[in-house]
Amino acid sequence: MYRVYTVPGARVGSVTMVRLAEVKALLDGWFEPSWAETWDAVGLVCGDPEQSVERILLCVDAVPATVAEAIGSRTDLLITHHPLLLTVVHGVPADDPKGGLVHRMIRAGVAHLVAHTNADVADPGVSDALAARLGLVATRPLVAQSDPLDKLVVFVPVGAAGSLIDALAAAGAGAIGDYERCAWVTEGEGTFRPLPGATPTLGTVGAVESVHEARVEMVVPRRHRAEVIAALRAAHPYEEPAFDLLAQVPVPSRRGTGRVGTLPAPMTLRDFTALAAAALPATSWGLRAAGDPEQLIHTVAVCGGSGGSYAEAARAAGADVFLTSDLKHHATVEAVTEQAPGGMALVDAAHWATEAPWLDAVAARLDLAFGTTVETRVSRLITDPWTLHAPSGPQ
Predict the structure, then answer these.
(1) Rounded to an integer, what distance in angstroms lies between the CA atom of residue 159 and that of residue 201?
(2) What is the phi/psi pair of residue 356, to 5°?
(3) Are 9 and 18 within 8 A, CB to CB?
(4) Contact yes or no for 373/9 (Cβ under 8 A)
(5) Which residues 6+ apart lie within 8 Å of 231 measured at CB?
């Protein structure tokens, strides 16, 4: 299920203008940049955050053909899955192949935004779109992840509790699933004695003071810890607010790498491979399967992109088959020959084809968020690098 976000935008006359910064904030909410792998390069590659966005184009790769499509269709924002500048660069001169693409986009007013490994692990993310394309139901993460959480406990005069909760929520506290501003509030008596040098909001220096206070508890994503504490100090009426910040035990969530689900009805590996070939975008690479063609398949694990390293996790999850891309020969031989009869099979699809379904899913979410204010399109150009496939043996 997708969340629907309302993006206000700025109004110019009777037309609502959506700024690039607003689109980026929306994408960052869906695909938090901090979820990306440390080696990855996600976020805004080029573009003015204040520029207006009326047309968005989505594709897997920023290559000359897709950049030309963006420019030719007067696109304001190109969103790609794969980074254009993945490796460290120290300049983007126009005579460099990738630098030249950056210059072309800037000259044409095309902003470029990347959501890569942060989209891989999102809920929903790349593997959710792949699982949906294959018709899998009752899906769950193949390798679940969770955001480290803190529990904030703060004491505040009862009359100031509501405004403090608002400030903490605005800084990122109190978000649980599809709910925000979540807090637990109890009331009691707080007591303190201001010492010389203090300037108390309530009470006098040297005298014991008793105040009817609220105890407010909210969860805090650890990545927002600094912002929440700063908001607490700014919004709390006390000179020295009393609070506890408690680290929580990580709990696996719906977010994570890959997905495991079931087919509506079992089928053979031969039929499943044919189903996947028909469901995924066509490429010269096609699909290839390792395992007994007549093996019955019911539980399926998938991972968009290069997921070979998760084969053992798929086997541990009880998958009958694991569909991903870029599988290596020796690992596949070992996976197939060392398994017991009726064990897990492998299906190797084109890398681009396993990630392309995500583009349609993101486009649908953008349409829900912006309606007709922003025109969103998915590029149908095939940027899979493999362009020919010749079956071996006599024809």
Answers:
(1) 13
(2) -60, -35
(3) yes
(4) yes
(5) 167, 168, 170, 171, 173
User: What backbone torsions phi and psi does residue 51 show, to the nearest 5 degrees?
Assistant: -70, 150
Contact 112, 219 (CB under 8 A): no
Cis omega (within 30 of 0) for bond into 281: no
- Specify the pLDDT at position 340: 55
- Specify the 3-state DSSP secondary structure of 119: helix
The CA distances from residue 181 to 8, 151, 175, 246, 382, in Å, are 20, 14, 6, 19, 43
Q: Which residues contact 386 (CB under 8 A, 6 or more apart)?
A: 283, 284, 285, 350
pLDDT in tens, 136-167: 999 999 999 988 899 999 999 999 999 999 99
- Angle ∠(176,35,177) on CA atoms, nearest 5: 15
Instruction: Report pLDDT digits (tens) over 51-90.
Output: 999 999 999 999 999 999 999 999 999 999 999 999 878 8
Nearest to 142 by CA among 256, 285, 264, 240: 256
Helices 97-108 and 64-72, packing angle to 10 deg: 10
pLDDT surpasses 80 at 48? yes
Q: What b-and-e string marks burial along 220-254, b requiring 16 or more CB atoms within 10 Å of the CB? A: bbeebbebbbebbeebbebeeeeeeeeeeeeeeeb
User: Which two three-digit tokens encode residue 273?
Assistant: 């491979």
Give every CB contact of residue 70 below 8 A, 6+ residues apart in sequence: 57, 78, 105, 108, 110
Q: Report helix angle 225-235 to 161-170, nearest 10.
A: 150
Nearest to 220 by CA among 204, 199, 244: 244
Q: Give every strand in the sheet of 77-80, ordered side by side.
A: 43-46, 111-114, 77-80, 55-59, 375-378
- Integer-rounded Cα Rg, in Å, for the chain is 26
Dig out the tokens for 9 from the structure: 């935008």
Lowest mean pLDDT among 7-21, 109-123, 373-387: 7-21
Of the two residues 164 and 7, the one the predictor is more confident about is 164
Give the count of alpha carbons within 13 A of 313, CB side only.
19
pLDDT given at position 14: 43
86 Cβ contact partners less than 8 Å away, ≥ 6 residues apart: 40, 41
